[in-house]
Each structure stands twice: as C-alpha cells, then as structure tokens.
C-alpha cells in the first residue's frame, strides 16, 4: 500500500481559495456581495478576484510577498481574501482601530510590498507610512480603495493607484500561480497585544481550509445563508468565514460600521440568517433601539467571554447564540459550545449559563485540553481545578514571523500553549476563567478575575467592570475592582458593593478596593487593557472606595 503514489487525480493541496471557483460554478447567478446599492453575483466575484490577482502579479507581487490592507467590511476587503493568495502572496489584514505607530510597526515587520487602504483611512495610512519612511524602511506601493457605491476621488499623496482602476486592468483569463504545498502561508495576522507586543501569526492554506470546514460543521451552516458582516474581516479573517461563506454560496451583506440602526435595518431588508460578533456588539444592539426579531438570527460570538446575563437578554429578542473560543494562533475559532438537545428543556437562565462556556474543540483540531503547565498533565474534570488551555491540530499556526523566542515558548510538549486559564467540567466542556497573567494569587489561593466580574455585573449600579490584582501587605495580592457606574452622576457605595460580593463568593475573593472610573481602557479590538489597570492598582491601598 505504501507504494501507491500521489496523483493529480487523488491529491490536491488544501486551500480555502478553492471555495471561490466552486461558488462561481454552483451558485454563479446567486448574489454574493451586497453593499449599499451595489450587488455582485458569485460569478462576478470570481472574475473580479481573478482580475485583482492578475493585476497584483503584473505589479511584481510574487510568492510569499505580503499584501496588506487597511479597510472596513467592504467588497474589496472580501475579494482580497481570495485574490491575494491566488497571486501566491500572503494577505495581511490590519486592524483599522490601531494608531499610526502600531500600523507602521506592522508594515515594517511584515515587509509589506503593497498596501491597500480604504479612503476613510488615508490619513492614518499617510502617518504610518511617514513613520516607516523616517525609519529608513522600504515603503510599500499604495492603492486607495475608493467607495465603490459612491466614489469620493480621495487618493494618497503621490500614489495614484486606485482599487477599481487596478482591477479593471487585470486579465481574468491570465494564468495564475498554482499552489504546490498546502503548508505555504496564506495569511499573516497580528495579535492584539493585550498582554505583550503584537506578534505576526502565520497560518497555512491547510490550516485555514480545515478551520473553515470545521467552523461550518460546528455551527451547522447550511446552503445559501444570508450573512451579515458585523465581525471585522481584519479579525482573524472574519474567523475564516470570509472563505466559509463562499463554500456555502452565501449572500455577504457588508456594512462599514456596527450602528444598531444599520444592523437591524440589514437584518430586516435582506433576511439575515447568520452573523458573528464580539459580545460588545450585543451591548450596542441592546441599547436604545433593541428590537424583537421577526425571524431568528444565528449568532456566533467570541473574542471575550460573554456573561450568562448578556446571553439571556439577546436570546430573549430572537438571537440564537453559539459561543466559541478562539485566538489568532488557532487560525480563528478553536472551541465551540456545541448544543445538546436535552438542554432545551432547561430554564433560559440555566441555558445561558451553559452557553457561556467555551465548549469542545472544533473538528479541525486533534485535541484541546486543560493542563498543569508544570507537569503537562490533565487537570481533573471537576469544573474547579485550574490549568492552562492547550491545543493541538492542523489549524494551529505555522508560527510567529521572525520570532524564534516566542515560538519556543508557545509550543511545548506537543501542544500550543494558549496562555488562557480554564477548567474542564464533568461533561468534558471547557470553560475559560482568565488569562494566565490575570489570575490573582491571594495567600496561595487562585482567584479568577472573570468570576468576580460576573458577580459584580449583577449589581444594579454596575454597567461595566474589570478586576485585577493589587498588592497586599499580608496576602501578597488581593482583588481590585474598577467599575463603571450605570448612573455616572451617582455615588457608588463601597459597603453595598462589598456586601453584595460577600453574599455571593468566598471572603478571600471579595475585592478589597473599588475604583469608579468613567470608562474601562480598551484596545483596538475592544478588549480591556488590564495591564493599564494593574499599573494603576500598584499604587493603591486596599481599603476605601475612590473615584478617578
């Protein structure tokens, strides 16, 4: 049997790019992309991507060259997920919420050959490119993505290239490079850097393909869904659903911003069936204009652990939520809270509590586990014993670009170390409890800040909260709660907050300090920057309430 060779008929390198020609063949006349007054079909999207790939090759883009893009959820952003790898290049989607300095760091580290920039971000790109030039680093070729629905004419300095003009010059019949090795890089994504400097994560064609397939199966996505892009495509390539929606012949509804009115309007106008988002989008949808949906919308949420109370509220207005857990290094989602039919018989609050767990590994992974990071042995399945969440499988990244020290630390004992702390419940479902750096060790006891935050959010006066460690003269560390009041003008009573916590948790877990602030510091992905709060807490005394 070992002598049976691979042949072109029985071995084709796996790549998510292959979903596009299939979509053109199978769903050719079906709408692929909707944006404002504009609509494309899958056959048109396929042709446009081939044109762009040919144009990139004509510009001198070659295998493993990095093509960066700074844009919101617009058709060009979607098309580049196929066109750039079709040219054998590596796609680098940049977070539009970053500042110029951070964008410049990415462009320099990635050594981007071409940068596409949406017209709204020309000033940001200009400033970033100036920083790159001042550092003496090569400046990439730049092309502006003008608004395809309502062109503005905006260009960037001496760079006169424009996306649609460039695309029009590409030959859709041109011969494009073929993929020889599925281990080749397909995308380069940068971590959000909540606990350290951003790192360049390299993912393979094979990993992206398998993660996409696993994602569709785990979420149960059928043929021809209507998908609303509330999740930024720059965030782990839309959790690989940029490619996944082509696999299912979906209608991709693109909107530039997640305003509540725009989201509800899109759901109503296009009959949206699916969307993804971080929990912060739920807060946007629940504030002011919360509407009960006329038909259910399936939502995959992740990026930060949602509270059971938040899941309860959004499900009551018609969103059917599936909770997932992932990270850039896993090429997107790594676990999903697969639903069990017997749970449907439970009261909604209990269903929401179960749904808040991160769940079981997606099908693209060989395994996910929670281990003692010293011995690498599995923790007991008791829902209490803490350990580090580890992953193994073909959708795990190739590694960090030009960062051997980080790679050595990330891969250990045949596992990828996520840096997230969790527990395993008796049914095998994993629940994240904290980042390893966010665990508070008080008198030898581990305290998960997430658990405290969930309790504090139940207090009627608390709108938002983050808990970090602060120094304690006796216990070493003790919890400090930074909270945002629902009524900014009202005073928050420390005694009431402390009493509220004491009724719901062990005494050693109760925050010794409550600090009221106007808003929690968040990074460009909406994640709380706890490093800043820890810095502030180092100078506090564990006693009275204060207001910053």
Automatic annotation (TrEMBL):
Swiss-Prot/TrEMBL keywords: Ligase, Magnesium
Family label: Belongs to the ATP-dependent AMP-binding enzyme family.
EC category: ligase
Gene Ontology annotations of biological process type: phenylpropanoid metabolic process
GO molecular function, one term: 4-coumarate-CoA ligase activity
Source organism superkingdom: Eukaryota
Cofactor(s) for this UniProt protein: Mg(2+)
Coiled-coil annotated spans: none
NCBIfam families the UniProt entry points to: PRK08162.1 (NF006020)
Residue stretches making up the AMP-binding enzyme C-terminal domain: 451-527
Domain AMP-dependent synthetase/ligase: 22-401
Keyword Glycosyltransferase recorded: no
Keyword RNA-binding in annotation: no
Organism: Triticum aestivum
Catalytic activity: (E)-4-coumarate + ATP + H(+) = (E)-4-coumaroyl-AMP + diphosphate; (E)-4-coumaroyl-AMP + CoA = (E)-4-coumaroyl-CoA + AMP + H(+); (E)-4-coumarate + ATP + CoA = (E)-4-coumaroyl-CoA + AMP + diphosphate
Documented EC number(s): 6.2.1.12
Protein name: 4-coumarate--CoA ligase
Pfam families (UniProt xref): AMP-binding (PF00501), AMP-binding_C (PF13193)
């Amino acid at each position: 049997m070992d002598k049976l060779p691979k042949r072109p008929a029985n071995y084709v390198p796996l790549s998510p790019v292959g979903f596009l020609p299939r979509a053109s063949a199978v769903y050719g006349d079906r709408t692929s992309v909707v944006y404002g007054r504009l609509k494309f079909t899958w056959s048109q999207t396929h042709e446009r991507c081939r044109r762009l790939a040919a144009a990139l090759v004509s510009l001198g883009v070659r295998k493993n060259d990095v093509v960066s893009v700074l844009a919101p959820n617009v058709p060009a952003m979607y098309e580049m997920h196929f066109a750039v790898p079709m040219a054998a290049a590596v796609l680098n989607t940049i977070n539009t919420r970053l500042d110029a300095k951070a964008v410049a760091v990415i462009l320099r580290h990635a050594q981007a050959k071409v940068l596409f920039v949406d017209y709204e971000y020309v000033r940001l790109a200009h400033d970033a490119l100036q920083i790159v030039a001042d550092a003496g680093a090569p400046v990439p070729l730049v092309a502006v993505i003008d608004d395809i629905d309502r062109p503005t004419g905006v260009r960037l300095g001496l760079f006169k290239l424009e996306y649609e003009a460039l695309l029009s010059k590409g030959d859709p019949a041109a011969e494009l490079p073929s993929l020889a090795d599925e281990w080749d890089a397909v995308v380069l994504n940068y971590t959000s850097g909540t606990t350290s400097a951003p790192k360049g994560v390299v993912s393979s064609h094979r990993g992206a393909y398998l993660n996409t397939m696993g994602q569709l199966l785990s979420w149960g996505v059928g043929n021809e869904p209507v998908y609303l892009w509330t999740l930024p495509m720059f965030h782990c390539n839309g959790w690989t659903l940029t490619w996944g929606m082509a696999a299912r012949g979906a209608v991709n509804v693109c909107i530039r911003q997640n305003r509540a009115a725009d989201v509800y309007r899109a759901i109503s106008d296009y009959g949206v069936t699916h969307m993804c988002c971080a929990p912060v989008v739920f807060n946007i949808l629940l504030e002011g204009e919360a509407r009960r949906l006329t038909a259910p919308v399936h939502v995959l949420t992740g990026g930060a652990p949602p509270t059971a109370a938040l899941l309860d509220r959004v499900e009551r207005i018609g969103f059917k939520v599936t909770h997932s857990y992932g990270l850039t290094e896993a090429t997107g989602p790594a676990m999903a809270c697969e639903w069990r039919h017997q749970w449907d018989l439970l009261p909604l609050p209990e269903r929401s509590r179960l749904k808040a767990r991160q769940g079981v590994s997606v099908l693209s992974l060989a395994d996910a586990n929670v281990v003692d990071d010293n011995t690498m042995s599995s923790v007991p399945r008791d829902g209490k014993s803490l350990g580090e969440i580890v992953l193994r499988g073909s959708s795990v990244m190739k590694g960090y670009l030009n960062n051997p020290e980080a790679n050595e630390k990330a891969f250990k004992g045949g596992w990828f170390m996520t840096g997230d702390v969790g527990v395993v419940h008796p049914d095998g479902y994993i629940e994240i409890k904290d980042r390893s750096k966010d665990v508070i060790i008080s008198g030898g006891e581990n305290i998960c800040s997430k658990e405290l935050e969930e309790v504090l959010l139940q207090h009627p006066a608390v709108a938002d909260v983050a808990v970090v460690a602060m120094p304690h003269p006796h216990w070493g560390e003790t919890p400090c709660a930074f909270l945002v009041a629902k009524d900014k003008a009202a005073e928050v009573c420390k005694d009431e907050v402390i009493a509220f916590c004491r009724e719901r948790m062990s005494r050693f877990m109760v925050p010794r300090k409550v600090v009221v602030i106007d808003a929690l510091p968040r990074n460009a992905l909406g994640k709380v920057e706890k490093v800043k709060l820890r810095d502030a807490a180092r100078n506090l005394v564990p006693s009275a309430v204060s207001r910053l």
